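for the writeup, i need someone to sanity check this before i put it in the appendix. the sequnce is what the collaborator sent (i think, or maybe the updated version? ugh). structure was predicted straight from it, no edits. if anything looks off just tell me and ill rerun, i have time this weekend
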Amino acid sequence: MMADEGFRSGFAGIIGRPNVGKSTLLNAFARRKVAIISDKPQTTRNRIRCVVDLEDAQIVFIDTPGLHKPRDALGERLNRKVRETLNDVDAVIFVLDGARGIGKGDAFIAQELKGIKPSVLVALNKIDLLRAEEVEGLAEEAGALGDFTSVIPVSARTGENTHALLERTRELMPYGPRYYPEGVVTDQPASFVVAELIREKALQLTREEVPHSVTVVVEEMGKEEGRDVLDIRADIYVERDSQKGIIIGRGGRMLREIGSRARREIEALLGERVFLDLHVKVEKDWTKRPGVISRLGL
């Protein structure tokens, strides 16, 4: 498709420590849920593409796993995904958590960003939790971390100033045609989004009892002839029998609640009735086994 004169299109990677609000920012740009949100590290494991259409531009945002010091094979693979993203985009948004302050992890990422080709914008997030003078001081501190194009204070949760970040990102996109038809929000298949929603509910409901060693694989998704219900069978994988017990809960109550909450969001997303069949499986120490990580699609 030929681009209209003056039309911009390109890719922007969102990078930062775990839990700084990258996925919340992505969802704010999309104005709907694209990436799952949790306060557990490594919630985002796949590079999730979110397409944002503006009047004279199309920006494809890529949410990345939090760059961190890896503790296992899964962590190493997640970091590799982040570094691959840095070579595939036209601009990078480096998200900092203003409420937690700027720390060694941020300085580590700033070093990783030195010398990369794309322009880097800093999004100083969670300003809704800060006083004005705190925001000003943190913005100066953030700017000193590297040679950045701009430092923009935002609140991904409330949406404050995210329009300014979006506009600055637009300015950094090259001229070119749309990559996706208008109206496309993500290029992830429905099965991926369904699996992410189930995993989100498992993380939210089990809180600190189950770490990030939970993943979900959708095994079947389809309709039987003559039935107006979408049947989804999914397996929730954990690393230990004790975690399996927590996910299932006494008398199966936790698993039913996970399924009930996930089903409501899946039905709203897909616009049809869903029968959700969940099973919990143990794959011992899967986060430390590269072969199993690949088999689970991570």
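The chain has two domains: 8-172, 190-295. Residues 190-295 form a domain with the GMP Synthetase; Chain A, domain 3 fold (CATH 3.30.300.20).
thx in advance!!
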